[in-house]
Specification:
Layout: H1 2-54, H2 61-70
Amino acid sequence: IERLFTAFMLFGGVLIFSYIIGVYGELLSQYEENNADYDEGERLQLFFGVLKKFNDFRMTLTVFVVVFIRK
């Protein structure tokens, strides 16, 4: 009976450990997704910089409106 009790205790420990690792993995995944937004922001700033360069360093209202309507 002692071996049976020990086997169930080990199995319970594995279940708890697996759950904790799963939650931790999901937190890391959400963290990476949240940081990906900043990368898109940098690309958007680069895009606006290119538009300014080709418009003699001024941002026209029509270009600004077209970019945000498409999004």
